[in-house]
Amino acid sequence: MHRAQPRWPHLVGRSAEEAIAVIRRDTGLSNIQVVGPDMMVTMDYRIDRVRIHVDKHGRVTSPPTIG
After folding, report:
1. Is there a domain that residue 3 lies in?
2. How many domains does the chain have?
3. Rounded Cα gap, residues 24 and 31, in angstroms
4. What InterPro entries does this protein's entry cite (predicted)?
5. Does residue 44 form part of some domain?
6. β-pair partners for 53
């Protein structure tokens, strides 16, 4: 059986700090990366990492996902 990946669409527009707290509570993961505008990231897929994309004000711009 395939398990669905957690997604957090309700975090869009919230601060990165709020998003980190929710994701840690939901997953127990500590490898959470905040990605700002124009930041480069690796393209590798990791099940132990969540990326949070934020705007220049630190607000979440898209639902964070594992990978």
Report:
1. no
2. 1
3. 9
4. Prot_inh_pot1, Prot_inh_pot1_sf
5. yes
6. 35
Contact 8, 55 (CB under 8 A): no
CB 66 within 8 A of CB 6: yes
Query: What span, in angstroms and rounded, lies between the C-alpha atoms of 28 and 26?
Result: 6
Residue 46: how many CA atoms within 13 Å on its side-chain side? Answer: 13
Distance CA 34, CA 39 (A): 10
Range of the domain at 26: 9-66
Q: Are 11 and 63 in contact (CB under 8 A)?
A: yes
Q: Which residue type is seen at 17?
A: E
Residue with tokens 């990978």: 67
Model confidence pLDDT, tens digit, residues 32-60: 999 999 999 999 999 999 999 999 999 99
Please say if the pLDDT value at position 14 is more than 50.
Answer: yes
- Amino acid found at 38: D
